[in-house]
Amino acid sequence: MISLEANSKYPPHKSTYILQEQRKTQINPTPSAMLAQERHKQILNLLERQGTVRTVDLAQGFKVTDETIRRDLQIMSDNKQLTRVHGGASSRNGRPRLQSFSERREIQVERKKAIAKAALKWIVPGKTYAFDSSTTAFELVSQLPDLPYRVITNAFTVLEHIAHMNNVELISTGGRYHPNTQTFTRSDSYVTLQRHNINIAFISCISLDLLRGASEGFEEQAEFKERLVRTAEAVVLLVDSSKLNAASEYFFAELKDITHIITDSEATSYAIKGLQSHGCTVVIAS
Question: Which stretches of 79-203 are DSSP H helices?
Fold first, then answer.
């Protein structure tokens, strides 16, 4: 794995599942100092009724901070009472639905744009870049200049966008196509990755745990990203702050595998210091 310096030709960073419904979480009126045990009980009741809960809704309903709710959910996850997902939690009795690409594009839009802008300045001619099928990576792709470099991707949306550029060499990984996420996965795509010298892989994740690394909610997505991380000389993880300090079902990269992480200005000092303690270079997009 090569290192990336801020003033070099490479970018400075290797970076749960968003709940699909913007439902109004119904919580009994409670004092702000409610005991954690009572919050946990009400959260379980909500999960039993509606299957999923959002961190932001719980924080508003219980009149506590988002960080307090995230700690509650982590404790309950450790106790196997629920499953942590990006933006909240789901019942252990059911598997979360994989959101479509169009649904994911509507989430944290401004943060993704800032992250993409921060990564853009390290795109230079003559190199080979890989992009995953994340909406954050696509935000970067949508801002790419039409210069002579190579792009490898498993994302139909990236292929469609780059196809209109005259100077970029475009390579599809091939494989099995998934219409909902507009991605290609499986053996054909892995062979393509191994054939090329990828200088930098720009990827995202559903969750980024401060100890275990990057994870996805679905196995095939995680497997493709694991292969990509192994293949690339450098990995830049593009991850907005809402995904930090959380974990999903399938881990695909340890923090030591990630060269740089680009996140937004809402990232907490706790999360940033946690990542840096594992040797990660963290870039804050403004």
Answer: 101-105, 109-120, 135-141, 156-162, 187-195
Reported residue count of the chain is 286
Both tokens assigned to 219:
């196995």
For domain 102-285, give its CATH number from 3.30.70.1290, 3.30.1330.10, 3.40.50.1360, 3.60.9.10.
3.40.50.1360
CATH 3.40.50.1360 domain locations along the chain: 102-285
C-alpha triplet 209, 210, 212: angle, nearest 5° = 60
| pLDDT of 19 strictly over 60 | no
- DSSP one-letter string for 41-74: HHHHHHHHHHSEEEHHHHHHHHTS-HHHHHHHHH
Determine what percent of the chain falls in helix, strand and coil, rounding each to the nearest 5: 35, 20, 45
pTM: 0.71
Q: What's the distance, CA 82 to chain centroid?
A: 21
pLDDT, one tens digit per residue, over 228-243 is 999 999 999 999 988 8
Q: What whole-number distance in Å separates Cα of residue 15 and Cα of residue 194?
A: 21
CA 272 to the chain's CA centroid: 16
Q: Which CATH number fits domain 36-90: 1.10.10, 3.80.10, 1.10.287, 3.30.1450?
A: 1.10.10
Pairing label, strands 83-85, 88-90 = antiparallel
Least Cα distance to 119 among 26, 3, 271, 6 occurs for: 6
Residues of CATH 1.10.10 domain(s) within the chain? 36-90
How many whole angstroms from its chain centre is CA 24? 25
Judge contact between 155 and 131, C-beta under 8 A.
Answer: yes
